[in-house]
Design a protein that fits this description.
By secondary structure, the chain is an alpha/beta fold. The chain has a single domain, classed as Glutaredoxin (3-Layer(aba) Sandwich). A 5-stranded mixed beta sheet has the order 1-3-2-4-5, with helices on one face. A hairpin with a 2-residue loop joins strand 4 and strand 5. It is globular.
Length: 106
Amino acid sequence: MKTIEQHNQISRAEIDRLNGAAVIEFGASWCEYCQAAQPMIAAALLQYPNARHIRIEDGKGQRLGRSFAVKLWPTLVFLKNGGESSRLVRPESTQVIIDALDTISL
């Protein structure tokens, strides 16, 4: 299983400097949509061991989520070398996550 990095203090500047493939997951631990998406996210990431998965506990007043214009959870932002390649809001299948991961795989 891929290790998930949980950050509540990471800055937008640090994210913009990331190298390689990364998925930033914005959500909340109590969010039912976020909980339902976890098996799909985990299954997709198993196929991409080089992609970093950074989970951000989002909420009112959280600047990082606002800087990415997050409005619904979960929102997955797919980054390649710090630049946004694509995003998914409330993904409904493992395949759509895999398709997005394909766009950032190195």
